[in-house]
Amino acid sequence: MLVTPTLAKVRAKIHQFIYGPVGERIILGLIILNSIVLGLETSPAAVTWAGGLITGLDKLFLGLFVLEMVLKIASDPRVFFRNGWDIFDLIIIALSVFPYQGHLSMLRALRIARVLRLVSVAPRLRVVVESIIKSLPSLGWVSALLAVIFYIFAVLGTTVFGQVFPDWFGSIPASLYTLFQILTLESWSMGIARPVLAEFPHAYLFFVPFIFLSSFVILNVFIAIIVNYLSQVSNQVEKTKDQPPNEIVVAIERLTTEILALKKQVEK
Amino acid sequence: MLVTPTLAKVRAKIHQFIYGPVGERIILGLIILNSIVLGLETSPAAVTWAGGLITGLDKLFLGLFVLEMVLKIASDPRVFFRNGWDIFDLIIIALSVFPYQGHLSMLRALRIARVLRLVSVAPRLRVVVESIIKSLPSLGWVSALLAVIFYIFAVLGTTVFGQVFPDWFGSIPASLYTLFQILTLESWSMGIARPVLAEFPHAYLFFVPFIFLSSFVILNVFIAIIVNYLSQVSNQVEKTKDQPPNEIVVAIERLTTEILALKKQVEK
Amino acid sequence: MLVTPTLAKVRAKIHQFIYGPVGERIILGLIILNSIVLGLETSPAAVTWAGGLITGLDKLFLGLFVLEMVLKIASDPRVFFRNGWDIFDLIIIALSVFPYQGHLSMLRALRIARVLRLVSVAPRLRVVVESIIKSLPSLGWVSALLAVIFYIFAVLGTTVFGQVFPDWFGSIPASLYTLFQILTLESWSMGIARPVLAEFPHAYLFFVPFIFLSSFVILNVFIAIIVNYLSQVSNQVEKTKDQPPNEIVVAIERLTTEILALKKQVEK
Amino acid sequence: MLVTPTLAKVRAKIHQFIYGPVGERIILGLIILNSIVLGLETSPAAVTWAGGLITGLDKLFLGLFVLEMVLKIASDPRVFFRNGWDIFDLIIIALSVFPYQGHLSMLRALRIARVLRLVSVAPRLRVVVESIIKSLPSLGWVSALLAVIFYIFAVLGTTVFGQVFPDWFGSIPASLYTLFQILTLESWSMGIARPVLAEFPHAYLFFVPFIFLSSFVILNVFIAIIVNYLSQVSNQVEKTKDQPPNEIVVAIERLTTEILALKKQVEK
C-alpha cells in the first residue's frame, strides 16, 4: 500500500492529537469513568436498577479503547511498539477483548485491570512505577538467596511434616505457601508451629531458624532498596559538590599561566 | 460601629494577654484539667460519686474555651482567621458546642477532641505535627498508586469471592476493609486466605500478589519519608560544608592579586 | 571516727582491687553463676534433686554481692554515689535483700533482675545501653503526641464501646491496653474490630484512623532514631573530611609567603 | 609416595578443569538437577511412577559430588582446606553420605542441604552471603543485650506463670519460645497475654515492658545494620571525593615548584 502525502498528513494529525494533552485528558477521563462503571457492576442494587446501561457503557468504553489502540498503532506503529507503556496498554485491552467462556469465564473479572491504565496515562504515576521498577534489579541476588532458603525449607517441611499435616505441608506448593505465611509472621506460632510441635517436639529447629534466616534476608532486601535510593540521592548531591573543586583547579591553572608569563618576563 | 481609641487599646491588651505566655499557660492548664475530667466521665464509679460536679466542670471548661475563642476573635479577627492553629481550635470548640440529639447523640463523644488542643497550645508538639504534615506531600503519588491497587483488587475480590464470602468481600467497601486488614498482615492467611482457598483453589493468585504489591508500595512510602528527612538533614550539612572550598577560593584570589602586583613591578 | 593513714591505705587498696580488672572479672563470674542458679531454681527436677544446695548457693551469692556493695561504698562513697551504674547495682541488690512477705512474696521473682548486673559489669554492654539511652530524648515530643492520640481514642472507645465490650473497652486502662494491642496490629481486625463492627457498623471510623495515625507517628519515631544515628555518623565523617581542605589552605598560605618574599626581592 | 612430574601435571590439569568455568558450570547444572530430583521425591505420585529412577538419580548425583570432592582435595589439598566455601561443600556432602539409621533416619531429610551448594557455586550469591555475614559482627553486643532481656523475662515468666500455664511458661525453654513468639508480635495479646491477664491481673507489667524493651533493642539491631551498610557506601564515596583535593594539591605543588624556580632566577 502506497502512503500518499495526504494519508501521511492525516496520520501525523491523529498521532499529534491522540498523544497530545487533549487526547491524554480524554483518555484519562474515559478510564476513570470506566473504573467507576466496573465498580458499579459489583453492586447487585446498581445491576438490578440499571444493569443494561452499565453493561452497555462498559462495552462502549471498551470499544473506545480498542479504537484508541487502532488509531495509535495506525498513526505510527514504530513509535507504538517501541514504547513499553503503549504495549502495556495493548495487552490490557487485548485481555479485556478476549472472549472468555466455559470455566475461563471467571477471568472476565480481569477487565478491572483496565484501571491500571491510569498509571500509563498519568505521567506522575508512571514516574513512580518506573522508579520502583528501577529499584528491582538491586533485589535480584538477594531474592535468589531467599528462593534457595524457601526451596530447602519447603522440601524439608514436606518430607518431615507432610504426612501428619497435609493441609500445611502436604506438597511443595502447599509448604511454600505456608512458609510465605510464616515469613509474614501471620499466626506462625499459635496457628502452625505449636500444633506441629505437639507432634514433632524438635520442630522448633525448623521454624525458628527459618524465621531468623528469612527475616534477615528480607531485612537485607529492604536495606538494598534504601541504600539504592540514598546512593541515587547522594550521587546528585556529589555532582553539585564537584563544582567548587573544579573551579579551584581552574583558578590554580589560571594562576600557573600568570606565573609562567611572569617567569618569561623575568627571563628576558 | 466606630472603634474608639479606648476600645482599640482594650482589644490590644486582651490580644497581648491571651496570646502571651501567661494566657497560654492558663489555657494549657485548663485543657489538661478538662482532659482529666473527660476521662473521669468514663468511670461509672466517678460518675455515681460526683456526676454532677463532673458535668458541671465540663460545662464550665467549655464555657471558658468559648470565652477564649470570643476574646481571640474579638481582639483581632484578622490574626485569628489567618492562623491555621486558631481555626483548628475554633472547629474543635464548635464541635463541642453543637447540640447533638437523637441518633447523633453518640457524636457527643467527640468532645474528647478538645484534648487535641494540647497540640495547638504546646509549641513543641506543634513543631512535631507540622514536620509530619510537611512530609505528607512526598507520599502523594505513591499513595495514588496504592489506591489504584486497592481499587483493582477490591473490584476483583467482590466479583469473584463476593457471593461465597459476603462478610469479607460482599461489597467494595467490605473488600477494601478486608484488603486493609490483609495489608496489615493481620490473620490474612489463617483468617481469610485459607478459608477462601478451600473454595477457590487458585485464590492464592489473588492474595500473594496483593501482599507483594502492597508491601512493596508501602515500603516505597516509608523510603520516600526517610529520604525526604535525610535530604533535609544533608542539605543543612552541605551548607556548612561549602564554606572551606570558599576559603580556598578566597585564598587563591588573594594569591592572584599578589602575583599580578608582582608582574606589574617586574614589568616596570 | 578518725581516718588513720593506715585505714585510708586499706580503703584505697580495696577500691583498687574491687574496681580493677581482677575484681571485675570475679564479679562477672559470680553474676553468671548466680544467673544459672536462678535459672535452675525454675526447674522442679533440679529443685527436688538439689533444692537445698540451690537455695544455699543463691543466698551465698547474694551475701557476696552485699559484701561487694559494702566494700565499694566503704572504700570511696563519693565515687560510688556519683556513678550511675554503681547506684543501679545498689538498687538491684537492695530489691533482692528486701524481705517480701504475704502477697508481696511474688515479687521475690524480681531477684532475677540481678542478671541485669551483667550490663553494668560488661563495658561493651554498658556502651550499647548508654547509646540506646542517649537516643531516647529524640523520641520525647513524638511520644507525647502518641500519648495524646492514645488518650483521645481510649476515652472515645470507653465512652462508645465500653458497655457492649467491657473486656476490651470497659475502662480507660482496658482501652489503652486494647489500643496498644491494635498498635502492634495483633488480631486487631479478626479479634477486635470485626466483632465491634457487627454491633457498631461505623466503628471502622474508629479503628482505621487510629491505625493510620499511630502507625504514622511510630514511623516518625523510627525515623527520628535513624536520623539521629546517621547524623552522629555523618558528623564524624565531616570531621575527617575537613582535613584535606585545611591542608590545601596551608599549602596556599605557604605559597603566598613565598610570593611575598619574591616580591620583596624584586622590589630591591 | 613420590610425586612424579607426570602426576603433578595431571593434578594441575584436574585442578584447572574442576575449578575452571566449564567445571563450575557442570557442577552448577548437577546441583540444579539434583535439587529438582530431591523435590520430586516429596511427591507421592512421582515416587509411585518412577521411584526407582529418582532414588537412582539421587545416588548418582551424590556419587558425582563425592567424586568432585575427592578430585578437588586430591588435586591440591592446600587450596581446598584454606577455602571456606570448599570446606562448606565438604561438610554438606559428608552430611549426605552419613548412613542415618534408627531414629536418626529423619535426618536423611538434611540431604536437601545440598541445594545450599548453589550459593557456594554461584559467585554472585556468594558475594551476597559474604556481605550478609560481614554485617553480623555489628550485631554482637546488641544481641547479647537481647539475650540478657530474654533470659530475665524467661526466668520471671517461668517462676510466676509456670504452674498455671505449663504449655507456654512451664520451663525456661518453653518460656524462651513463647517470648520469641511475643517478640514477633504473633497472637501475643489475644493468644497469650489476655488469658494470662485473666489469672494474673498485673501480668501486663510483664508483657508490655517486654514488648517495649525487645522491640526497641531489635530496632537498634536494624539501625546497626543500616548504619553499617551506609557507612560502607559513604566510605567508597569519600574515596572518590578525595581525588579532586589531591589534584588540587598536585596543582599547588606544581605552582610552588614554578615559583621557587622563578625566585632562583630573580635572585641571579
What does this structure look like?
4 copies of one chain form a homotetramer. Chain A has 12 helices and no strands. Chain A folds into 2 domains: 5-121, Four Helix Bundle (Hemerythrin (Met), subunit A) (Up-down Bundle); 128-236, Helix Hairpins, CATH 1.10.287.70. The mean pLDDT of chain A is 83. The termini of chain A are far apart. In chain A, helix 1 (5-19) packs across helix 3, helix 3 (44-75) packs across helix 5 (84-97) and helix 8 (140-161) runs antiparallel to helix 12. With 268 residues, chain A is mainly α. At the B-C interface, helix 2, helix 7, helix 10 and helix 12 of B face helix 8, helix 11 and helix 12 of C.
Keywords:
homotetramer; 268 residues; mainly alpha; Four Helix Bundle (Hemerythrin (Met), subunit A); Helix Hairpins; 2 domains; 12 helices
Number of helices of chain A: 12
Gap between N and C termini of chain A, in Å? 80 Å
Largest interface: B-C, 55 and 52 residues
Low-confidence stretches of chain A: none
Largest sheet of chain A: none
CATH class of the largest domain in chain A: Mainly Alpha
Could you tell me the CATH topology label of the largest domain in chain A.
Four Helix Bundle (Hemerythrin (Met), subunit A)
Proportion in helices of chain A: over 70%
Structural class of chain A: mainly alpha
Strand content of chain A: under 5%
Total strand segments of chain A: 0
- Assembly of the depicted chains: homotetramer
Named CATH architecture of the largest domain in chain A: Up-down Bundle
Shape of chain A: flat
SSE string of chain A? HHHHHHHHHHHH
- CATH H-level homologous superfamily name of the largest domain in chain A: Voltage-gated potassium channels. Chain C
